[in-house]
Design a protein that fits this description.
It is a single chain. This protein is an alpha+beta fold. The chain has one domain (about 20-165). Helix content is about 30%, strand content about 30%. The protein has helices spanning about 1-15, 30-35, 35-50, 65-75, 125-135, and strands at about 20, 20-25, 50, 55-60, 60, 95-105, 110-120, 145, 150-165. Strands 2, 3, 4, 6, 7, 8 and 9 form a 7-stranded mixed β-sheet that branches. A two-stranded antiparallel ribbon has the order 1-5. Strand 3 (about 50) and strand 4 form a beta hairpin. The N and C termini lie far apart (about 75 Å).
């Protein structure tokens, strides 16, 4: 009985110390990293990923290994292209929404299986889902190659801050004479 309690304690403590990496979908790789990505991925695949067949997932990292987690997130769940233009859901009130969600990257490098975990702010879960569907429709990742075969990356956690409403003129609140010529 004592061994079982100790075993459960170790498992529970381990789950509190490690956390799933949260990936960003709105920042893309710089050109230098993108050109060398496959070489970097080959060197870090076993360190960063748990693969089973053609499906992989990011390893969980303890808080003292945040540097390793950051490198893994950069190499495996940072898009190579993010579209700056997308359609916002109709009839959504203006404001800010923090969206936590999970998703997968298919073997072609596209986001699939978006599932809203929570949304706090101006949009509800349904509106947040539509927003993410539109925002990520043109987002592209470099496909993950494991032993020469394209693989999926599953169970990725994401977080995104969405701003909805009308865009205001960026110059509206700027001083009249900035000393810089503008059109």
């Amino acid at each position: 009985m004592k061994k079982i309690i100790i075993f459960l304690g170790v498992i529970l403590f381990g789950s509190l110390v490690t956390s799933s990496p949260i990936c960003s979908i709105n920042q893309e790789l710089n050109k230098d990293t993108a050109t060398k990505l496959q070489d970097f991925r080959n060197q870090t695949l076993k360190t960063c990923m748990q693969c089973n067949g053609n499906s992989c997932k990011l390893k969980e990292w303890s808080k003292d290994k945040k540097g390793d987690e950051s490198i893994c997130k950069l190499l495996f769940c940072t898009p190579s292209y993010v579209s700056k233009f997308f359609e916002k859901p109709a009839n959504v009130k203006s404001g800010r929404t923090k969206i936590n969600f999970s998703y997968s990257i298919n073997s072609k490098g596209k986001i699939k299986n978006i599932s809203i975990i929570s949304s706090k702010g101006a949009m509800n879960d349904r509106e947040s889902y539509k927003y993410l569907q539109s925002f990520t429709s043109k987002t592209q990742f470099e496909p993950l190659l494991v032993s020469g075969k394209a693989s999926t990356i599953d169970n990725i956690q994401g977080e995104h801050i969405a701003f909805t409403g009308k865009y205001e003129d960026v110059n509206k609140n700027m001083p009249v004479n900035q000393g810089v010529w503008r059109n």
